[in-house]
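anyone seen this seq b4? input:
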Amino acid sequence: MPLRSRLAIAVAAGALAFATAATPAVASDEGADDPALSSQEDLSQGGGFDQSAGGVDTQGDHRNQRLYKGRVTASTLALRSAPNRGSQIIRFAQRGDIVTIFCKTNGQSVQGNRHWYLLTDGTWAWGSARYIANIGPKPRWC
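predicted toks r here
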């Protein structure tokens, strides 16, 4: 693996470790277990995500963490422990699911797209940007 790729993964892992230690509440997904709250409602009500605020979480989080939203476009998307297809699968997302993106990095190319998103929906996991469409502004780099 080239040094540049290892460096990018190391930086992303460091950011993950720091973010987890500094802001563990960011990983919670309140209301995710409520079947009455559909993805469509999340979009129509903004889901605490203010596009005019440049991707800022507006649900009263005093830390003003920048979170972004995306929609899964694959029928089933494996979310992984690292930004490559050989890493451990943590969970799966289904087509149409709305996911919360913390940041993006370069990783293994998936059908010509090297970008991977670090997702914060209850667990920290990497998803290929090839199968996640941005809702609002593009995520920042890790």
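The two ends are 20 Å apart (CA to CA). The mean pLDDT is 72. kinda curious what u guys think
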